[in-house]
Design brief:
Strand content: 15-25%
Structural class: alpha+beta
Number of helices: 3
Shape: elongated
Length: 106
Protein backbone atom coordinates (compact mmCIF):
# COMPACT_ATOMS: atom_id res chain seq x y z
CA UNK A 1 0.00 0.00 0.00
CA UNK A 2 1.38 3.37 -1.00
CA UNK A 3 1.31 6.21 1.52
CA UNK A 4 -0.75 9.35 0.97
CA UNK A 5 1.62 12.32 0.85
CA UNK A 6 0.83 15.79 2.19
CA UNK A 7 1.57 18.80 0.00
CA UNK A 8 4.66 19.61 2.13
CA UNK A 9 5.97 16.06 1.78
CA UNK A 10 5.41 16.16 -1.99
CA UNK A 11 7.30 19.46 -2.22
CA UNK A 12 10.19 18.02 -0.17
CA UNK A 13 10.35 14.93 -2.36
CA UNK A 14 10.35 17.10 -5.49
CA UNK A 15 13.24 19.25 -4.13
CA UNK A 16 15.25 16.08 -3.44
CA UNK A 17 14.49 14.74 -6.93
CA UNK A 18 12.58 11.72 -5.65
CA UNK A 19 9.68 10.75 -7.90
CA UNK A 20 6.28 10.37 -6.29
CA UNK A 21 4.45 7.23 -7.32
CA UNK A 22 0.79 7.59 -8.18
CA UNK A 23 -1.81 4.92 -7.64
CA UNK A 24 -3.36 3.40 -10.71
CA UNK A 25 -6.85 2.08 -10.68
CA UNK A 26 -6.97 -1.61 -11.47
CA UNK A 27 -8.83 -2.56 -14.63
CA UNK A 28 -12.23 -4.09 -14.04
CA UNK A 29 -11.90 -7.83 -13.84
CA UNK A 30 -13.93 -10.00 -16.18
CA UNK A 31 -14.73 -13.63 -15.47
CA UNK A 32 -15.27 -16.16 -18.25
CA UNK A 33 -17.07 -19.49 -18.16
CA UNK A 34 -17.88 -22.11 -20.75
CA UNK A 35 -21.18 -23.92 -20.74
CA UNK A 36 -21.33 -26.31 -23.69
CA UNK A 37 -21.15 -24.15 -26.84
CA UNK A 38 -21.97 -21.01 -24.85
CA UNK A 39 -19.43 -18.63 -23.36
CA UNK A 40 -20.48 -16.62 -20.33
CA UNK A 41 -18.80 -13.39 -19.30
CA UNK A 42 -19.40 -11.13 -16.32
CA UNK A 43 -17.89 -8.70 -13.87
CA UNK A 44 -18.50 -11.00 -10.88
CA UNK A 45 -17.81 -14.66 -10.32
CA UNK A 46 -20.80 -16.93 -10.67
CA UNK A 47 -22.24 -17.92 -7.31
CA UNK A 48 -22.10 -21.59 -6.30
CA UNK A 49 -25.89 -21.62 -6.11
CA UNK A 50 -26.71 -20.59 -9.68
CA UNK A 51 -29.65 -18.33 -10.51
CA UNK A 52 -32.78 -20.16 -11.68
CA UNK A 53 -32.43 -19.24 -15.36
CA UNK A 54 -28.82 -20.46 -15.44
CA UNK A 55 -29.73 -23.62 -13.56
CA UNK A 56 -32.39 -24.30 -16.24
CA UNK A 57 -29.79 -23.72 -18.94
CA UNK A 58 -27.42 -26.16 -17.23
CA UNK A 59 -30.19 -28.79 -17.19
CA UNK A 60 -30.87 -28.15 -20.89
CA UNK A 61 -27.19 -28.53 -21.81
CA UNK A 62 -26.49 -31.31 -19.30
CA UNK A 63 -23.50 -29.64 -17.63
CA UNK A 64 -22.41 -26.83 -15.33
CA UNK A 65 -20.34 -23.74 -16.22
CA UNK A 66 -16.57 -24.18 -16.08
CA UNK A 67 -14.24 -21.22 -15.40
CA UNK A 68 -11.83 -20.57 -18.27
CA UNK A 69 -9.18 -18.03 -19.25
CA UNK A 70 -10.29 -15.11 -21.38
CA UNK A 71 -10.62 -16.25 -25.00
CA UNK A 72 -8.26 -14.62 -27.50
CA UNK A 73 -11.27 -13.32 -29.46
CA UNK A 74 -14.89 -12.90 -28.45
CA UNK A 75 -16.77 -16.06 -29.41
CA UNK A 76 -19.93 -15.89 -31.52
CA UNK A 77 -22.04 -17.40 -28.78
CA UNK A 78 -21.18 -15.21 -25.77
CA UNK A 79 -23.59 -13.97 -23.10
CA UNK A 80 -22.89 -11.27 -20.50
CA UNK A 81 -24.53 -12.39 -17.26
CA UNK A 82 -23.56 -9.39 -15.09
CA UNK A 83 -26.98 -7.75 -14.90
CA UNK A 84 -28.84 -11.04 -14.60
CA UNK A 85 -27.18 -11.89 -11.27
CA UNK A 86 -28.83 -8.90 -9.61
CA UNK A 87 -32.37 -10.03 -10.27
CA UNK A 88 -34.53 -11.58 -12.92
CA UNK A 89 -33.47 -11.66 -16.55
CA UNK A 90 -35.58 -9.50 -18.88
CA UNK A 91 -37.84 -11.48 -21.24
CA UNK A 92 -36.13 -10.00 -24.33
CA UNK A 93 -32.74 -11.18 -23.08
CA UNK A 94 -34.06 -14.70 -22.46
CA UNK A 95 -35.62 -14.83 -25.94
CA UNK A 96 -32.38 -13.67 -27.54
CA UNK A 97 -30.31 -16.23 -25.63
CA UNK A 98 -32.65 -19.13 -26.44
CA UNK A 99 -32.75 -18.13 -30.12
CA UNK A 100 -28.95 -18.10 -30.23
CA UNK A 101 -28.88 -21.54 -28.62
CA UNK A 102 -31.55 -22.86 -31.00
CA UNK A 103 -29.36 -21.95 -34.00
CA UNK A 104 -26.10 -23.16 -32.42
CA UNK A 105 -24.64 -26.56 -33.11
CA UNK A 106 -25.13 -28.42 -29.84
Amino acid sequence: MLPEWTSQQRAALQVMGIPVWEKKSAPASVFYYRLGPLYLRGQNELPVSLPGWLDDLCLYLGQRPVAIKAPSKTPDLCFDYTESLNGSVPVETKKSLWQQLAHAKL
